[in-house]
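Query structure, 231 tokens:
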């Protein structure tokens, strides 16, 4: 057993740092950008084209929150190559596994995180907007200087939890041939015929990663609580 652990652990950790963590970090980064844009669109009081954008944003959030992540991965990686668009994509939309994973995880994260950010912004009292605008600040200035720093304090815990969940969800990337930790564990299992041991090892590595991230989350919350004044 110890020989198997010694042989497989370096390979699993290498896959974790090469694919699992980068996949989660990049996807979460783009997911947050999408989430912020979607949240601002849904909170906007502008009319005209913003009304159409708001409808698209509502549909996007509904779609990705209503369908399984695994199905979304399959649609992007296995389904899009069959989407023939003459002139633009005559051979379908061909994506590399890592690219397909980033797109899917980013869109999925963006849908969930947009609701967190929207609720956090909405939790800031309306009087904050009015007071800042009364001294001549534009709405954009109010948003970036007054509202978002306060909203961040509210949004940080659920967003951090979303990132931790995303790290675990990257195991689904094995289904589209990304060689992350779970995929490597499956490959090693096919060679040593030790499925129970291998899956326990990879589970413990995921637990280690998420424990470190949980501690980092706690530190960030304490730091933010000290540096950001209460509403």
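Result returned for the query:
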């Amino acid at each position: 057993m110890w020989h198997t652990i010694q042989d497989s652990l370096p390979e699993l950790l290498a896959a974790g740092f090469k694919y699992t963590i980068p996949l989660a970090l990049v996807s979460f980064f783009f997911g947050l950008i999408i989430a912020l844009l979607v949240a601002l669109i849904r909170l906007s009081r502008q009319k005209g084209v913003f009304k159409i954008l708001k409808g698209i944003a509502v549909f996007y959030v509904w779609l990705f929150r209503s369908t399984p992540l695994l199905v979304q991965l399959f649609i992007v990686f296995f389904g899009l190559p069959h989407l023939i668009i003459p002139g633009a994509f005559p051979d379908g939309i061909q994506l590399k596994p890592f690219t397909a994973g980033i797109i899917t995880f980013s869109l999925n994260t963006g849908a969930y995180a947009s609701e967190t950010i929207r609720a956090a912004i909405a939790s800031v009292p309306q009087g904050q907007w009015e007071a800042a605008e009364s001294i001549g600040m534009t709405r954009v200035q109010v948003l970036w200087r007054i509202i978002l720093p306060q909203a961040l304090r509210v949004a940080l815990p659920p967003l951090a939890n979303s990132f931790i969940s995303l790290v675990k969800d990257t195991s689904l990337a094995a289904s589209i041939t990304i060689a992350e930790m779970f995929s490597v564990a499956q490959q090693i299992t096919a060679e040593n015929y030790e499925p129970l041991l291998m899956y326990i090892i990879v589970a413990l590595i995921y637990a280690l990663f998420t424990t470190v991230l949980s501690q980092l989350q706690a530190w960030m919350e304490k730091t933010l609580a000290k540096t950001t004044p209460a509403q």
